[in-house]
Design brief:
Number of helices: 19
Oligomer: single chain
CATH topology: Growth Hormone, Chain: A
Keywords: Cell membrane, Membrane, Transmembrane, Transmembrane helix
Helix content: over 70%
Largest sheet: none
Protein name: Bacillibactin exporter
Number of strands: 0
Distance between the termini: 24 Å
Subcellular location: Cell membrane
Pfam families: MFS_1 (PF07690)
Radius of gyration: 21 Å
Main location: membrane
CATH superfamily: MFS general substrate transporter like domains
């Protein structure tokens, strides 16, 4: 039996490269959230710096800004020069730029390192999604994306908890967590061989190909998927960005209540994501996306009904469960619409869409919350999600899935 056949049959958790790719997927949550527990102490340590209160808070979102700008470029590089080299370079830069905050002398230099961290995230996310398309097909690809969502959820729970412990010792120590991915580099070296082999088979073409496909409709389809990802993430991001304020205004101790609610969301989402492949294989991609949006909408309805623990936990659990279907769903859709030689470009579009959703969510939603209040906005979000559930079942969407089913 060839190594490639063995690779295809081996369970994901037993394959070193698959595990490494799963770990790199956690970078998108590591990039922003890991230093959050250290922010108050960091602000105190730079109290003499003008505007430190704003700059310290910007350290969390700074990587998202550069991801939005760099991801499309990273996608083009991945298509031209290969996904494996880009991933290895991105992981290396992630470890260096991320951990730099532990020893850089001033706040401005730390801010620069956070912007560079966003460049690394753009490189790794774009290359990682492209490689998932290159190395996995059919139900195995669906299974990987489900595992990926679960891994991101569980790792966020672990990383934030570990960062909280380190922040209690020193506000600089959480930055050292970013150096951990350097351990993945030995596992990623063999990706080049598998990428080349995938490029020679029916699954793809060599990553260095620069030809243009005759049918350019994939560009419009890819931009539509990126817009779907941006919209979905911007709605989902109300949970980490606005839930603390909702709980505070409802009379809860916001810090502990937020930890419980978001912990429920991530743990439920992680568990549900493990059955994504099974659900998607039975229902199909379109119906799975529709169910995910309906469940998310139900979660926001629960939050809007009443600010009690029953509805808060039910809402958080439903939103986490629905998003566990939706996120791997739109990633799978992106890989379906992407020509093999353009997977890097499409991955760049979708990565930009996801991080742009994080950036615009508080900008767009905060004025509505201030004017209308949380209950009205939560009901409105539920209606938007139900509309997305309907749009997921449009005949054109179903034809796209059927046409791409063999991808």
């Amino acid at each position: 039996m060839s190594d490639d056949r063995l690779f295809k049959q081996r369970p994901l958790w037993m394959d070193a490269v698959a595990v490494a790719l799963l770990m790199t997927a956690t970078f998108k949550i590591m990039a922003n959230a890991t230093i959050s527990p250290a922010l108050p102490a960091l602000e105190a340590s730079f109290a003499d710096v003008p505007g430190a209160d704003y700059l310290v808070r910007f350290l969390v979102s700074a990587p998202s800004l550069t991801v939005v700008l760099v991801a499309p470029i990273a996608g083009l590089i991945a298509d031209r020069h290969g996904r494996g080299p880009l991933l290895i370079a991105g992981v290396t830069l992630f470890a260096i730029a991320g951990s730099a905050g532990a020893y850089l002398p001033d706040l401005n230099s730390i801010l620069v390192s956070r912007l560079l961290l966003g460049v690394a995230v753009a490189m790794t996310m774009t290359a990682q999604v492209s490689l998932v398309g290159d190395l996995f097909t059919g139900e195995r690809r669906s299974s990987f994306l489900g595992w990926q969502t679960a891994t991101v959820n569980f790792s966020g729970f672990i990383f934030i908890g570990f960062a909280g412990y380190l922040a209690g010792l020193s506000p600089r120590l959480p930055f050292l967590i970013y150096a951990i991915p350097i351990l993945l580099l030995p596992l990623l070296v063999s990706i080049g061989h598998r990428e080349k082999h995938a490029g020679e088979g029916v699954e793809g073409v060599p990553a260095s190909s620069t030809g243009v496909t005759p049918n350019q409709r994939w560009v419009i389809q890819a931009l539509m998927v990126a817009a779907l990802a941006m919209t979905t993430v911007s709605l989902f991001f109300l949970m980490p960005s606005q839930l603390p304020f909702y709980l505070d205004r409802s009379g809860f101790e916001s810090a502990s209540a937020t930890a419980v609610a978001l912990g429920t969301l991530t743990l439920v989402g992680g568990c549900v994501a493990l059955i994504f492949k099974r659900v998607c294989s039975r229902l199909g991609l379109a119906l799975t996306l529709s169910v995910g949006y309906l469940v998310m909408g139900g979660g926001f309805v629960a939050l809007a009904v009443e600010a009690t623990w029953v509805f808060i936990l039910a809402g958080a659990a439903l939103i986490g469960a629905g998003y566990a279907f939706v996120q791997p769903g739109f990633l799978l859709l992106a890989l379906k619409v992407a020509p093999p030689e353009r997977r890097g470009t499409v991955s760049g579009f979708v990565t930009t869409g996801m991080f742009l959703g994080q950036v615009i969510s508080p900008i767009v939603m905060t004025p509505f919350l201030q004017i209308e209040g949380f209950g009205v906005v939560f009901f409105g979000i539920a209606l938007v999600l139900m509309l997305l559930a309907v749009l997921s079942l449009l005949p054109a969407f179903l034809r796209l899935e059927k046409k791409s089913g063999a991808t």
